[in-house]
Amino acid sequence: MSEEIFDVCDEQDNVIGQAPRSVVHARKLLHRAVHIWVFNSSGELLTHMRSATKDEFPSTYTSSASGHLSAGETYDEAAPRELEEELGIRAELTRLTSLPASPATAYEHTVLYRCTTDATPRPDPGEVAAVEFRPFAYVAEMARTSPEKFSPPFLQLVEWAVANGVGRS
User: Fold this and answer.
1) How many whole angstroms from its chain centre is CA 51?
2) What is the largest distance, in Å, between two alpha-carbon atoms of the chain?
């Protein structure tokens, strides 16, 4: 299997080149990612525990689904692809916000989407160790008191959501 190629970006999220995944991560080059938050009809957020084999932040909690954009891919193309690949879910997505790339976001320009569905997740075991629906307030409190249990980009998104009232029933 060939290595993924990512777009390398500048601070304003303009593409300035491409590089293999391993190079992008090793050199901490700015690149792009999407996160999707899946809420059920009860207003609970689906979080997932990253697989222990992930190259970054293994065995930590993160967004319902997330992933890098492939070279040439748009955020709006990547989000439904990642949702289906990681959870086997198709749903209408709404873009919520974007965060600039920084050390706190793992050098990823990050766009957050959300959806509401009661579809049963079918996690990809290579990507996802476990999934669980939880009240957003519980997730936010857990992120505040035990940040080491979460991926850094997810922590930034939770901080944004708390500040902006996202996730409240």
Assistant:
1) 14
2) 43
